## 1
Amino acid sequence: MTRFESELQAVADRVVDQAKSGEQIEAYVARGGETEVRVYQGDVEHFVAAQSEGIGIRVIRDGRTGFAYAGTLDEDAIREVLAEARDNVQFGTVDEWAALAEPDGVAVTEQTLWNDELADYPTDRKIDLAKELEKLASGADPRVRVDDSNYADAHGESAVASTTGIRMSGRENGCYVSVSTLADEGEGDDAETQTGFGFSVGRSPNEFDLDRAAREAADRATRLLGATQPPSRRVTVVLDPFVTAQFIGVISSTLNGEAVVKGRSLFRDRLGETVAASSVTLVDDPTNPKAYTATDVDGEGLAGRRNVLIQQGVLQQFVHNSYSARRAGTVSTGNATRGGFAGTPGVGCLALSLEPGTRSQDELIADVDDGLLVQQMQGLHSGVNPISGDFSTGAAGLLITNGAVGAPVREITIASTLQKMLLDVVEIGGDIEWLPMRSAGMSLVIRDVTMSGT
Amino acid sequence: MIERDVLQRVLAGAVSTGAEFAEVYAEDKRSTSAGLDDGKVEQVSSGRDRGAGIRVVAGETTGFAYTSDLSESGLATAATAAAAAASQGGGGVRTIALTSSPPHRPNTIERDPDSVAKAAKVELLERMNEAARSYGSEIVQVSAGYGDSRKQVLVANTDGVLTDDEIVRTLLRVSAVADGDTGMQTGYQSMGHTVGFEIFDTVDVEELAREAARQAITKLRARPSPSGAMPVVIKHGTGGVLFHEACGHGLEADHIQKGASVYAGKVGQQVASPLVTLVDDGTMPGEWGTLGFDDEGHITQRNVLIEDGILTDYMWDYLRARKDDRPQSGNGRRQSYQHLPMVRMTNTFVLDGPDDPDDIISSTPNGVYVAKLGGGSVNTASGDFVFGMTEAYLIENGEITEPLRDGNLIGNGPKVLADIDMLANDFAMGSPGTCGKDGQGVPVGDGQPTLRVKSLTVGGTA
C-alpha cells in the first residue's frame, strides 16, 4: 500500500526550503471540514457546513524557539507567518534541549483512517440519522424528552516537514451521532428532571448503532429519577466504562514526560516502583485499530507506537515527545500531540487502555457489600489536582448493597488521591469498549473512596 | 474589513432562496502570546485569525457556513452554502439597506498591545518568575503566560444592522508549585482585562506571582478537606463562578425554551434568598466579559436577572428573542467566526448585601472558608453544580484556622440560592474566566461580595 500524500506536503516543503544556515524550521499545514446537524422536535435546528485551513511554523536558532500561525494558506500570509516566527525567536531563552524531532527509524504501522463511504455520504441521510435517533430516544421511555439530537462528521488532512528530515502527511475522517435526553417526573415543587446522553461513533455512518445510543440516553436519564443525597461514608466504587475512561485520562497527565522533566509529576521519581495494584497494566497504543484515536504518526511526524506505562502495578516509563525525551536523556515514545496548526507540539497519551479483566460488571457488583456504581462524574477539571494528586469530583449513580444495585443517588462527591486510588484498585472488568476519547472504558472497582453527601 | 455594498449584495444573495434572515459576522484577530516555564521563556507566538461566518435562518432552521476568504466571491460561496443548508424553497429578490450603528466602546484603549515591543511582554514573565521563586525556598517550579489580542469585528444582517467593534484583551497568568514533606502543592493567579498594555502601569505583576507562591506554600501544611454538608463562606471576588453555575447558565433562554432548566417558568417567583440581586452586565469598563456589541451586533447592556431574590428575566440572543417576540438582551455570543452564536453570559455578579465580612466568619461556628475557587460546571436541567476550591480553610469557633487540600463542592442551584443567609458589603470582581458551552469558549467575568451558604456539600476525605 502506498501512503497517501497530501498536496499540503508541498506547502510545508516550500516553507522548510527557505531555511537559512543555522536555522531549524518545522512547518505544519492542515486543512479540514466539518458537517454538523442538530435536530429538535423533528426539524433541523441548525446545519453547519464549513472548511478551514492554516499553517503553524516553528523556528529554532541557537537554542531559541519562535512560533507563529495563521488561519489561511494564502501565500502572503505564509510569508508573514515565517517572518513573525523568525522575529519571535530572539525573545526565547536559550534552551540546550530545544530542537526539532529527527527521524528515528521506527516503522509506521499503517492505519485505515480514511473512509470513502463517509466522504461520499449524502447530506439528506445525515439529517435523517439525527432525526431517526431523536425518534428512537424519545420513544424509548414515556418520561423521556430529547434536548437535542446530532449528527457530526469531520475530515482533515495535514502535512509536516522539517529541516531535520521529517516529512509526513496523512488524512482522516470520522463521524458520530449523539443525543441528549431529559427525563421528567413529579409535578409542582416535586418536579424533577434528570439528564442523559447517548452516542455512537464510526469511520462511516454504517457503523452506527442508533438503537443502543437511544437506549443508553434514555436509561442514563431515567435511572437517576428519584435520586436522593445519601449520608457521607467510605465506600467501594464501581466506575462505569465511560467514567473509567475519564479517570484514566486524569492518570495519564501524571505520566506525561514534560510534567516529569519539569518536576510536576507526582510519579517523577518512581520509575521501576510499584505505583498501582498488581492487576493494573496500563498501555498507550495508537496502533490499535480499535482505538477511536488510533493514528499512524504523532504530532511531530514520528511513528505512533505501543508503550507499556504500568505493568502489573510497576511504573515502566513515561510518554515523551522529542523535547521532553532529550531532557530526560531518552528517546521520543512517539507521543507528541498537536491541537492543530495554532500551537506547538505537546506531550500526551494517544490511545490508552487498562488491560481488561475477565468478569462482567454484574459479577463485579456481586462482590461489593457497600458501594456506589458511579455513572457520571462532574467537575474533573475543577476538583482534581494532578500535581498534588488530590481527587474530588461530583458524582451520580446507584448505591450497591450486598452485591445488588439499589437506589439512585446524586449531589454527592467522591474523593481520594490519585496515588491511593491506583493502589486501591480491586478489579478491572472484562467489558472493554473504545469510546470517542483518548482512553478505552471498562468497569473498574476501587475500594475506600470517600462519598460525601449529607 | 468588508465594503458596505459587498455586504448588502452577499446578504441579499443569502436570502434569495426564501430565508427570512441572514447575517455576516467577520473578524480579523491578531494575537501575541508568550510562555515562560522552568525558568525559560519557551517561546513567543504570534497568531492571525481572519474569516467570516454566514448564518441564514429559514423558519426554525439555521444554516451556517464559514470561510477564511473575505473576498466577495468567498463570502458569496459561504452564503450559498449556508442558504442551501437552511433551504426552504420559495425565493424572491430582497434589497438590503444597512445602517451603521453609532460606535459603542465601553473600554478605552490607551496603549494598543500591538504597538508594545515583544521584549516588554516577555519581561513581565521574567519578573513574575523571579518574584514567585524568591517568595520561598519551597517553590520548585513556576510557569507564567502572557497573552494579548486585538480583534476587529463586523456584523451585518438583513434587518439592516451594521456594527463594527474592536476588542483588545490583555491577560497574564502565573502558577507555582511548592514541594514539601507532604508532596507537591500548587498556586495559581491570573488577571485579564479588555484594555491595552496600560493595565501594567497599575497592576503589580510581582504581587500576582507572590500570591500564587503563597497559596502553594500555604497548602503544604493543608489537611484533607472535610466531607459532607456544612456552612461555606466564600471570599469576595472569588465566588462569582458559584452564581455562574448555580443559576447563570440556567437563566440562558435557549435552555429555558427547551424546558431544560430548573428556572423555566419561574419569572416573578422567589428563586433565591431575598439578599440576592444578580446582574449580567456587558458594559462594565475593562472587565473580561465586556463588549461594545454582542456577537450578533446588538448593543450590550446591564440586565438585572434576579432582584431581591425574585427572578426578573432571562438572557436572550437573536433567535430565542425572536421566538418569544421580545427584545434581545445583548447576550448573543460566539467563540469565533467559525461558531454559531448562542445565549451566553458576559460579566455576571451579585450586588452588595448588608453584612460585615468579618461578622460572617465570626458568626459561623464551624464550616469551610473558601479563599479561592477554581472552575465549575452545571447540569442546568437538574440544577446540580460543582465548583473547585483551590484555597480553603477550616472555620472553627468563628475563626479561620487550618488550610485544606483541594476539592470540589457540590450543590443544587435553587437550593443553594435559597440557602445564602449572609451577604457582605465588600463587592469585588474576580479573575478572568473562560466559559464553556456546547464546545465553545468565551471570555466572561464574575464578581460577588463575601457570602455564606448555610449548607453545601464539601467533597473532601476527612
## 2
Amino acid sequence: MTILLGQSLVNAILLSGMLALVALGFSIVWGVLKIINLAHGAFIMLGAYVTFTLFNLYHVDPFLTIPISMLALFLLGYLIQAYVINWVIRAPLLVTFLLTFGLDIILINLALFVWKGDVRAVGPAYAGTGLTLFRDPLTSQGIQVPYVRLAAFVISLVLAGLLYLFMSYTKLGRAIQATGQDKDAAQLTGVRVAPTYALTFAIGAALAGAAGSLISVMQPFDPNMGGGYRLRAFIIVVLGGLGSIPGVILGSVLFALVDVLVGISPLAPLKDGVAFAMLVLVLIVRPTGIAGKAFY
Amino acid sequence: MSNPKPETQNQKSKMPVTRWDMLLGPRRNIVYVVVCAVALAALLFLPRMSLSGFVLTSLTTALLLAVRAQAWNFIGGYTGYAAFGNVAFYGLGAYGTAILMTKLHWPFLPAMLIGGVVATVYAVIVGLPVLRMRGQYFAIATLGVAEATRELVSSPQLSKLTAGPTGINLPFFRPEGLSGAAAAAVGSRYFYYVAVGLLVFVVLVTWLLTRSKLGYSLVAIREDEDAAKMLGINTTWAKVAAFAMSAFFTGLVGGHYAYWRTFILPEEVFNVRYTLEGILSAVLGGPGTILGPVVGGAIYDAVSTFLTFSKPFGIDLGQFHVTILGLFIVMVIIFLPRGVADFFGRHKFSLGMFLENVRQNRV
C-alpha cells in the first residue's frame, strides 16, 4: 500500500512538471492578452507531431527536437496573433472565444489531413527504462521513476525558470508584463502593443510546443489530444491564480496530486468530472486562486 | 420631457430602429408576421412536393440546428452569458428519451418531452453554482460541465441505466402496417414535421419572452448586471430560468435526434461540435433577436451542406470541408462580429462596413 501511495506521489510530481508547462503558455496569454486561447490544445498537439515527424523521418532524438518544435510553434503563434487575433482583440469575449475555437478546428483538421487520425507514439530506445527507488530486497519491487518522465520534469522546470527570468529581468519581458497590466500606460512608455501581443502569444505557443514534444514520448496521441490538456490548463491556471508563474506551478502540483489520487480510487472513470468539480469549488470559494491576484 | 402615457411595448416599436424598419414603414409589424406565416406555410407544404429523402433529411437537420441556436439564444443572446456547454443538455435529452423508450416503452413524444425536462432539471441544479461566475469563467465552466456530464453518462457506475460507452439502440419508427422503404418515407416526413413543430414552439416562446417581464430582466442583466440587481431583479432566478429554458429546448432536440437516428453513443451526443454549431448560428444571425438564430442556422447549414456535398469548380473538397468551415467561422468572426444583423443596421450598406468592424476591434 505504501508502495502504491509512494508511486502515486512520484507520478504526481513528475506529471506536475509537464502540466505546469502546458498551463504556463496558456496562463501568459490569458494574463497579458486577456483572451482564452482555445487553440492551445492544438498547439500542444502540433508540437507532438513535429517531434513525431522528426523522430520517424530523420531519426532525431525526441529531446533534441524540443528546440525545433518550440521554434516552429513560436513562428506559427506569432503569425496567428499578428495577422488574425490582433484584428479582433478588442471585441467582446465571445468573439475571441469563437475565433480561437475556429482556429482550433482548422489546426486539428489540417493535422488530420497531414498525419491521418491514427494513434501515434514516439518510441525511442530508452523509453521504458528508469530508476527504481526504495527497492524492497525481497520482492525487488520499488517505486518506478522512468527516465523519460524524469527528463520531462527537469526540462519543464528549466523552461519555467527561464520564463520567469525572461519575464522579470529582460526588457522585453517587462514590456510584456507592462502591456498586461495597463496597455495604454505601456504604450505611453513606448511599448508597441501589437508586436508585444504577438510575441506573448508566440511564447505561449512555443511552450505548448515543448509540452507537446514531451508528451509525445510519454503517451500515445492523435490529432484530438489537445482538448483534455486545454481543459486541464484552464483548471490549473484558475487554481493557481491568473498572472503568477509560481501560482501555476503550485496549481499544477495540486492538480496532479488530485488527478493521480483519483486515478487509483474507485472514482477513476470520473476523472474529468472530479477535475471540473474542483474548478467549480475554487471559483466559488476563492476565485482568485491560490496565489491570488498578483499580476504578471 | 414628461410623457403622460407610460411607455408600452407598442409605443417602443413605433420608433423605426433599423433601415428595414424605415423602408417598410408603419405597417411593418404586419409585414413581419406575413413573412413568417408564408415561411411557415412553405415549410409545412414542402414534404408534399415529393422531395427526395436526402433533401428532407438535410432540411430536418437545418431545422434542428435552428432550434438549438434559438435555445442558446436564451442564455447567450438575451442574458449575455455565453454558455459553451449546451451539448450536455442535448445529450441528456437524448439519453432521457432513449431510456424511457427502451426501458419503459414510452411512446416518442412524451419521452422526448420528459427528456427535455431531465435536461431542465439538470440545468437548474448545475446552473445555481455555475451561474455565479461571469464572462470567461462561466464559459469554460459550462464547457467543463459538458465534459463532466459526458463522463458521468458513460461511466461504469451508471452503465446499468445508460449502457455506458456502448450506447443505446432505440426502437425503429414503425407506422402501422408499413415497413421498409414506405416506412422510411413516412418516417422522414414525421421527423420533419416534429422538427418544424419544435422550431415554431421555440420561436413562439422567444417572442413571448421578449414581451414578458422575464425578458426585460434578462436584457437588463446582459446590459448591466449590478444595476439590474439594484433595481430589485432577482438575477439568480432570472439567469437560472434562462439557462433552464435553453436546456429544455436543447434537450428536446436531443430527444428528437435519439429517436431519429435510433442509436446514441456518449461521444456522439456529447460532442462539442453541437454546441459550437448552435453558438455560431446564433451569433451569425444576430444574438438577442427573435429570428436571428433561425436565419443564422439556415445560412450555416447551407454553407456546411454546400461544402460537404458539392464540388465547386470541379474541385473535390473531400476532407477539407471542415477546415474550410473553420475558415468560414474565422472570417465571419473577424468581419461580421455582430452577425447578419449588421446588414439590417442603421447605416447605409457598403463594403466599408466590414472594414469598420475590423477597425473597431483591432488592437
